[in-house]
């Protein structure tokens, strides 16, 4: 398998990463989000091998592993579990369709940096197996099985947004997704003379998983307290801010901050997408800056590196909006930058960042692309 250059694949699937313009930490709170698939992707080459064995090779990790279809159990190595989980859930819903296969994965996405290399991988596996074995999975099945693999095999209790964007992404469009009922519509991403620039901090603080799970608990407990007086309130992101302000002061102060952030971010996401529809990019960008303030001060999922880059972006004339993107504690900032200022912005940010933190910044400009697809 490691001689991947001579590997003769039957099919090739490309599966993109995703960005989220605004609506952070809202997917598990039933809120509105505004993601899109990007032009950077993972490529997955598949072939059947006629046995009950599955061989998987990650070019990025130069690592190979094999498993038997009759013996699927969670592995100690995280990346194995994306394969094991997706195979498990497909097999549960469509027994005896999957046979042995070989798969090579090569990704141009930064891994673990908030552009969802994980959803790209798991949705790419699901799409590839669907095509290779003519299973007939619907897009909804690919989304939910990939999410279930991440929950139950990898152990990340992610929302639905990442898989949704990876599967339903459409070139030139954002997806306005309601994570409560999963209704969605495409919103043309008319950024005119602005480019989408991601600045990868190249840090990932190890608080990310524990704090992520804690935020979920804090939000659940905040909603329960609200429901004690207002049982009709089923979805945190949809609770009117007056109710949050009435109940909040009686809660632990951190819980109040968390739920305030959620309802404010939901309102900001709606305002931002309305501004975009009207072509009001300044208001759209302003909402991104405010989203970052909320994430940093109320939701407390930022870190010094992310705050530094957003502050720098605020003072840079060609940038109209900037915020941390993804779970937080590292990963990327997303910036809307005037096209003719992109190089200057990247140069200034890279220099200031390495002077301050002694870490190399990884900047990249992304375009909005299509969702996971069979290429050949
Ligand atoms: P993100 O989704 O933001 O990139 P995650 O921590 O959710 O970050 O997912 C990263 C994990 O996904 C990696 O630790 C690895 O287990 C898996 N992964 C992603 N891309 C690859 C790849 N090309 N090869 C092997 N594993 C990968
Ligand atoms: Mg992920």
UniProtKB/TrEMBL annotation:
Residues 81-169 form the GHMP kinase N-terminal domain. InterPro entries: Galactokinase (IPR000705), Galactokinase_CS (IPR019741), GalKase_N (IPR019539), GHMP_kinase_C_dom (IPR013750), GHMP_kinase_C_sf (IPR036554), GHMP_kinase_N_dom (IPR006204), Mevalonate/galactokinase (IPR006206), Ribosomal_Su5_D2-typ_SF (IPR020568). Gene3D superfamilies: 3.30.230.10, GHMP kinase, C-terminal domain (3.30.70.890). GO terms for molecular function: galactokinase activity. It is an enzyme of class 2 (transferase). Its EC number is 2.7.1.6. Pfam families: GalKase_gal_bdg, GHMP_kinases_C, GHMP_kinases_N. Residues 274-354 form the GHMP kinase C-terminal domain. The keyword Nucleotide-binding applies. Keywords: ATP-binding, Carbohydrate metabolism, Galactose metabolism, Kinase, Nucleotide-binding, Transferase. The keyword ATP-binding applies. Transmembrane segments: none annotated. Residues 7-46 form the Galactokinase N-terminal domain. Belongs to the GHMP kinase family. GalK subfamily. NCBIfam families: gal_kin. This is Galactokinase. It comes from Flagellimonas algicola. The gene is galK.
